[in-house]
Amino acid sequence: MKGLVIVIGRDLRLALRQSADAWLAVLFFVLTATLFPFGVGPEAATLRQIAPGVIWVVALLAVLLSLERLFLADFEDGSLEQLLLSPLPLEVAVLGKVAAHWLTTGLPLIAAAPLLALLFHMEPAGLLTLLLAMLLGTPVLSLIGAVGAALTLGARRGGVLIPLLVLPLYIPPLIFGVGATESALSGLSARPDLLLLGALLLVMLLVAPLAAAAALRQALE
Amino acid sequence: MHRFANPARFTRIADRVLPFVAVATAAALGVGFYMALFVAPPDYQQGESVRIMYVHVPSAWMAMFIYVAIAVASAVALIWRHPLADLAAKASSPIGAGFAFLTLVTGSLWGRPMWGTWWEWDGRLTSMLILFFLYLGHMALMHAFDDQQRGYRAAAILALVGVINIPIIKFSVDWWATLHQPASVFRLDGPTIHPSMLWPLLITAVGFKLYYVTVVLLRIKSELIAARLRALDLARLKAS
């Protein structure tokens, strides 16, 4: 537990000292979303209808954008090998790095989501559910992404490869995330979708650190 | 199981088995397609276009089966470091992608007369599209490293993560499709299929499976030969 906190703290300190990276993801999130009104037209009814889907897809792409640097810097300067040699289980270290990644990417996205909801004329009734779904869903994105980032470490064209590996696996959180928000907007219960998102989070909390740690081990072999 | 890890022994056994499997493939596919095209009756609603089913459904079965086969081979490769399991996974992936692609193309061709559109965001077709992407990712990762061993390991981990995710993806896509689809699409599943259509379907399915076995054996053999050629080339370079 103490090791986990140390890893998270270290990654957070690193991220704060280069805070441009975290801002970049949020900026990408807002900028890309603002492209949609130019693409589909500014009618409030259309925008309101596509709002949950656009916010989720753009959030997913913003997370994707930030994945490559998850392990790459540590891989290049050798600190990943130190982590491997330390008594801390590599799975726990991965979990710490994923948590730090979520705190610097997922959480800012959630903070920026109400702004997009406003821009897309989303009904306020759905906002709370949207945020709740993102709170459950964005950690899943970080977890799955960590597996993709670990697998492509040291690969030729690693950055291009990550989307190909990760995007198909992002479809379930996308479906349940959008589903929860849309249910809330149409007056239905968002509970089933939120529960499924929670279940997905639990499964990925178990599977992703194992897989990512296995991938890192053979990357460092 | 490690008795078969010896490439020479594997090649010997494969050479022994291959002619039989190849002949059986040709026979099953020949009989199956003949029955599918000439013996099986046209559907009372869909007419002759129902015959696409005899390619479409076995391809879909194979696309799903091969991913599981890759996952099993990957687990064997990771746990026991069995060298042939790596080769089997590598050899299977393009075949599975081919079957997934065939499923999508025949599904699209079938959808045109039946649904009036080339593509419908139907739960099954969509999951097959995602499966196709998973195959592409597996293949790309396999070839992404200068060190082939690393490619094997990474692709094996990816296949295991993928096989855990496939049921989740399948479930979520079905969930999504039932929410979004206004009219129910015709369904082929269930025991309602008549024996005159079931038999050709089963025989072509067996033919497809035998085809897979034949091609996998051939591809593993050629991989082994390629590895030997590389080794010989290296030895010659060192000698000169």
Verbal overview:
The complex is a heterodimer of chains A (221) and B (240). By secondary structure, chain A is mostly helical. Chain A has one domain (2-219). In chain A, 83% of the residues lie in helices and 0% in strands. Chain A has ten helices and no strands. In chain A, helix 2 crosses helix 6, helix 7 (127-151) runs antiparallel to helix 9 (171-185) and helix 9 (171-185) packs antiparallel against helix 10. The radius of gyration of chain A is 18 Å and the shape is elongated. The mean pLDDT of chain A is 91. Chain B is mainly alpha-helical. Chain B has one domain (50-181, 195-239). Chain B is built from six helices and no strands. In chain B, helix 2 packs antiparallel against helix 3 (83-115), helix 2 crosses helix 5 and helix 4 (123-142) runs antiparallel to helix 5 (148-180). Chain B is globular and about 70 Å long. Chain B starts with 6 loop residues before the first helix and ends with a helix. Chain A binds chain B through residues 147, 151-152, 154-158, 161, 164-165, 167-169, 171-172, 175-176, 179, 196, 200, 203, 207, 211, 214-215, 218-219, 221, and chain B through 78, 130, 133-134, 136-137, 140-141, 144-146, 150, 153-154, 157-158, 160-162, 164-165, 168-169, 171-173, 175-176, 179.
The backbone outline of chain A, from C-alpha atoms, is: elongated
Total beta strands of chain A = 0
Helix content of chain A: over 70%
Question: What share of the residues of chain B does DSSP label as strand, in percent?
Answer: under 5%
Number of H- or I-type helical stretches of chain A: 10
User: Distance N terminus to C terminus of chain A?
Assistant: 26 Å
Radius of gyration of chain A: 18 Å
Q: Give the CA-CA distance, first to last residue of chain B.
A: 39 Å
Poorly predicted regions of chain B are 182-186
Q: Main beta sheet of chain B, described? A: none
How many domains of chain B, as an integer? 1
What percentage of residues of chain B falls in helices of 4 or more residues? over 70%
Query: Which class of secondary structure composition applies to the elements of chain A?
Result: mainly alpha
Total individual domains of chain A: 1
Largest sheet of chain A: none
Low-pLDDT regions of chain A: none
The H-and-E topology of chain B, N to C, reads as: HHHHHH
